[in-house]
Amino acid sequence: MMQTLITYLAVGSIVGYLLSKVNRHIGPIVLFALSIYSLIILWNLPTGAVENLYGFEGVLKFTALSRYFSILSLIVFASFSFFNISWIDKAKNPHAFNALSILTLLGTLGIFFSSNLIVLYIFWELAVLGSLFIVPMGKEESRKAAIWYIVISSIGTYMFLYGVFMLYSQYNTFDVFEIAKYLPHESSSFKWIVLILLLAAGIAKSGIFPLHTWLRNVHGNAPDTFSAVLSGQLVKMGSYILALVLTIFPVSVMFSEFYNGINLLSYLLIWLGNISILVGTLMAIKQNDMKMLIAYSTVANSGYILIGLATLDKVGYAGGLFHVINHALAATMIFLSFAAVVYRTGTTKIDELGGLIHRMPVTFVTYLVGIISLAGIPPTSGFISKWMIFQSLVSRGMFVTEMFTFIGSIGSFLYVFRPLAGVFLGQLKSKHKDVREAPIFMTIPMILLVTLTVLWGIFPQQVLMWITDIQKEFSMTVFQFEGTKLMTNMGYWDTWTVFVMFAVGFIIAAVIYILMPKGKKIPLEDQYTSGEFLHNYDLYHYASKFYAFFEREYEGHPSFEDLYLSFVNVLKAVGKGVDYLARREASAYLFWTAVVLVILLWVRW
Amino acid sequence: MTAVRVAQVLLTAFFFGLTFEGIGRKVTARIQKRYGPPWYQNFIDVFKTLTKHGWTHGWIFDFGVLMALGGVIATLSFVPLGNLVAFPGLDNFFVIVYLFTVGALGMAMGMVGTGNPWASIGVARALTLMLGYEVPYLIVITSMLYFYKTSNISNIIAAQGEIWNIFRFPIGALVAFISLQGMLGKEPFEAPIAPAEIASGPMVELSAKYMGLLMLMNTFMEFVEISLFVDFFLGGGTYFVFLLKYLVVWILAVMISAVLPRFRIEQAVAFYWTVPILLAFLQAFLVINGWVF
Amino acid sequence: MSKIDERSVWEKIADQLRSRSMWMLHYCTGCGAVELPPSMTSRFDMERLGMGPMATPRQADIFLITGYLSAKTLRRVIYTYEKMADPKYVIGFGSCTINGGIYYDSYSTINRLDYYIPVDLYIAGCMPRPEAILNAFNQLMEMIRKGEANGWKRYKENYEWYKQNQLRSLGEVIVHDEFHE
């Protein structure tokens, strides 16, 4: 079945391209049909199935981990493509956009299916190439963003490839399950080098510090809907590699224990996660561009995922995996709602917008539920994963890591509130007075994602089933739950009871509200203005420098982006020197003649 | 039975919360050499605001107010009041802390939904302050959770027995109390609602019943915050003993707030991220090494 | 008993509560504001009557016009009064609000406040001392309990008349000039 799906997607990519030439709206429909078809097939496919791919024997294996990641990818792609049916009107090259997005889906599904590392690498490059050519179709700076993307992605993939070749020269096989049997018996330096090389791909792709700099440029400048796929799905390829490498090789056995049951490699990874959370959170707080803001929040959330996965215990690892699906849904919702806003207003700057809730309520609700899940507030599913990660950290007494996760968690309230207040709430700009709600094709996937997030927040059994399947597959101890009751060694909680109490509280408040005299509706311009008469209410909106008083505290921070740009400048300077010497001008000829003469004299021919 | 216990918790918070606020106003008045309002003044205030005819700026304002009160009521029902626990076993600390933010988010959203920039500034300040006080507070509390190997609050109350945690974790109790002052929004951490500076911040457009509902919400929030402190550090206790301990903590907080001026918001965050956070890590270090009295 | 004085049972109970919890907006138009700090602090302590200062007109119940009004301040007074939630009460401080006080013949002084907004109670004097102010507050509380403080209802009922007076004196309430646009 997996080979068939890959064939269908490859054919679908060409068909989508040709049909988009006829009518640009057909491309997204093809992608939607393909992703729903794949979703149905993969949902029912039993795990453990091994298949050949075009004659290569046994290179595809459908594990529980593959099922989990492919289902979440397909959910993201299905909503993305449905949303695109309307949005494609604004795309620059619709046919190429459609073909390449189908190709990206092919690549990512291939990654999740491969049990052969070199096949995995090929699919990986396919996914990167597919997305690489979509990125420059966005804003003006998106061409530069594509360079960031390809450079940092290549750093990861080439390190991965080198690690794969090292393994091949040692064992003569690319099969990851075979390698996992041999690796623990190797020398410790070999294990360190190979694992770091393999993990580098995951670190680069999921935007973990120090390879996080591409996210701001790429997510911020890519075409609006494609940012949803980038943040919701492509970043999760990195999380897949991290989850796979950390569990298929028995890392906890291979490396010595460092602190309360955490091995040294995991501990280092947790520290990378800590720094990612700090950098992502603090940088997100000061962004004025809403897409870049959520791009930095992706850095922070990848940090959470890495911390959860690296704890490698039943609660933390399950929390990390759960966070993957939560963040995928939340980021998709947020970026799709932003795409709807940009579709109607044409800007991503927070301080150029405002009060859109009165014109685009469905988009607002999507964004609201998205951020509630992203910030980990019950009753959405985002809280469950954060709770699991916290429980795991507390039970191990990792207080420094806790500090970073708490800063990330409370910091997320700060940065998600910035677009909420700046874009959706506050005063409606006079130029946006007659903005309408996004078209129906955009609102339907948004509503469905909202429903899914809330539903999984109240009844998380299905997701937890998938997660426990993964844990069983890797013979870890399994996260325990009974119905809606989630249990750890430190205590339990019940999602259903919490939801019921929330409903009860809401009803009590509503009863008091209804019994008392009705409030009179007044327009937004009827404001307390300290007795002053205002006529331009566009200016009576607090959106720029929202957290100025806090941003001031870390103004002169060191920046890795600047560091990398200074490397670029060094390269450019060297290139200019070479350029200068290779010019076809008298001075260059003179220089080379002089050099030749000097050499001749020096060697004394 | 559960419904009765929930009702008991809610009514306790309503009745004693408002009463203690009235007593707090009385204490402040006495510190300023005034007579002060009667102890039931806050009941009159809440009911009066509910009877007035207010203004609304649209559905998000109404919804935000309902979400605020609803979220806080939900939080409150999970908080153990000494040995009165509405949902035994479900009083998980992290659930309470995060449920708490539902109410805060509802309030922030509704108030910014009025479209008044003062409200936005107030909310931005409140969130920044939250970043300050929550981090040391959570480190201290989680070090206690680590020590007792449980995150259920009633288990911690039971484990304290005769020796309260304030004696076992004195540094932690100090840090938690400083954080409590920030959570309650009392001086010196009062910048988010500074009435003379930003026209009472988030509450700037609140009239009539919206004001009343948010006053109730504020009372319940204070009740949750102080109850957590009493449960964690003062050993909970039976119903009336719990209320007595609650009153002592509350009056102490009120007395401190009555004599202090206000920090600017960045000063408050800088303060929380230096002294209390270092003390919190000192406490955590002591706990990891098992040096607990 | 006219229609304006009719109250339901609930309104009567509500008025009891309203009289015991009056939040004031201290929009300090004139020199009378200087009498408020002593009324608030330890000598006279108005908080024991359940009164206190509030930051915005949305939250407030009583509106104190503390002293003389000019054409400029009257605009703000009307603008602010219309932002207050019903029921709302107005107290005029000192002789300035009654007949213009010592500046009665100035070109921009407003001589009678209750042409423009309904005033429930005046405090005579220039300026009234805190004793007089507290006496007035007690009087207003009594009036609210009896249902006599009906300025907010009168304003609704005679809105046309008040508006006409406002427009006659001010031209327009909300100014449109280069400083405000």
Can you tell me about this structure?
The complex is a heterotrimer of chains A (605), B (293) and C (181). With 605 residues, chain A is mainly alpha-helical. Chain A is 70% helix and 5% strand. In chain A, the strands form 3 sheets. Chain A has a 3-stranded antiparallel sheet. In chain A, strands 1-2 form a two-stranded antiparallel ribbon. Chain A has a two-stranded antiparallel ribbon with strand order 3-4. In chain A, α6 (142-171) packs across α9 (213-221), α13 (290-311) packs antiparallel against α14 (314-345) and α14 (314-345) runs antiparallel to α18 (440-458). Chain A is globular. Helices cover 72% and strands 1% of the residues of chain B. Chain B contains 13 helices and 1 strand. Chain B has helices spanning 2-31, 41-51, 59-78, 93-112, 117-148, 153-160, 165-168, 170-183, 195-198, 208-233, 239-258, 265-272, 275-288, and one strand at residues 55-56. The longest helix of chain B has 32 residues, at 117-148. Chain C has a single domain, classed as 3-Layer(aba) Sandwich (Rossmann fold), CATH 3.40.50.12280. Chain C has helices at residues 9-20, 36-40, 71-83, 96-99, 130-146, 151-157, 159-170, and strands at residues 23-25, 52-54, 62-66, 69-70, 89-93, 109-110, 121-123. In chain C, strands 2-1-3-5-7 form a 5-stranded parallel sheet. Chain C has a two-stranded antiparallel sheet with strand order 4-6. In chain C, α2 links the parallel β1 and β2. The chains are: A mainly alpha (605), B mainly alpha (293), C alpha/beta (181). Chains in contact: A-B, A-C, B-C. At the A-C interface, loops of A face α3 of C. β8 of chain A pairs parallel with β1 of chain B.
